[in-house]
Write a structure and sequence with these properties.
By secondary structure, the protein is an all-alpha fold. Helix content is 82%, strand content 0%. Helix 1 packs antiparallel against helix 6, helix 6 runs antiparallel to helix 7 and helix 6 packs antiparallel against helix 9. It is globular and about 45 Å long.
């Protein structure tokens, strides 16, 4: 399989794993405690934005050297990036449409709780959610799930790298809703995130730069926010 031009060091990999654990286990608790200690009453949208912003700044600081090298590569191959995005979006449309039909066949009334939560927050603070979702999330999630997890494992175990990145990327969107889904609905929600996870790995490998999946992730989130805006 094609090699990635910028391998991740063991130190950067350790930083990434630490940051993922911090994001999922520590940061939400710190934000909640902070609001109590400072006697603040932020909305869910404001808490979400703070979470996104802290993650965004963290990845920029911790992976600034990796990002700089990746940016130099991206500047040299714009054609490869955009062709990867075009092919990737075609694959994404086909796979997600198929999964959409499958989910609707199994349960026509199924609702994705993460999408519902974002929709509810965007009703009153659309601009805040849009900035977080479109500008902050793609960079932080792609650096961790493709730039760290996928990149480091890919050099020795490409297939395992794909499965690990795709599965954890899907799970990260569901972890906050464990206990709220039935087992069947949890599986259906998991399926809905697979197309993006698959295509993000594809665009990274084909283009050879992390900026391709970042751009693809941004495009998908832009389309999602356009849908949310039209549904207001």
């Amino acid at each position: 399989m094609k090699k990635l031009p910028v391998p991740l060091s063991k130190t950067e990999f350790s930083r990434g794993l630490g940051l993922i654990c911090f994001q999922q286990l520590v940061l939400p608790v710190l934000l909640s405690l902070g609001t109590v200690v400072l006697s603040l009453s932020p909305t869910d949208a404001e808490l979400n934005f703070a979470y996104f912003l802290i993650n965004y700044i963290s990845v920029l600081v911790l992976f600034r050297n990796f990002l700089w090298v990746e940016l130099e590569i991206a500047v040299e191959r714009p054609g490869k990036i955009f062709s990867s995005l075009a092919i990737g979006y075609g694959l994404y449309y086909v796979i997600s449409t198929g999964i959409g039909y499958l989910v609707a066949f199994i349960d026509p009334e199924f609702l994705n709780l993460n999408d519902e939560n974002i929709g509810a927050m965007s009703q009153n603070q659309f601009a805040l959610i849009a900035v977080g979702t479109v500008l902050l999330v793609p960079m932080s999630e792609e650096l961790l799930f493709r730039g760290v997890l996928f990149n480091y494992i890919y050099e020795k175990r490409p297939v395992i790298a794909c499965f690990t990145s795709i599965i954890l990327f899907s799970m990260i969107h569901l972890i906050g809703f464990i206990g709220e889904y039935s087992p069947l609905h949890f599986a259906l929600a998991f399926l809905q995130y697979l197309p993006a996870g698959i295509v993000l790995c594809f665009t990274y490998v084909r283009s050879g730069t992390i900026f391709a999946p970042i751009l693809f992730h941004t495009l998908v989130n832009v389309l999602a926010m356009i849908y949310q805006y039209s549904a207001r």
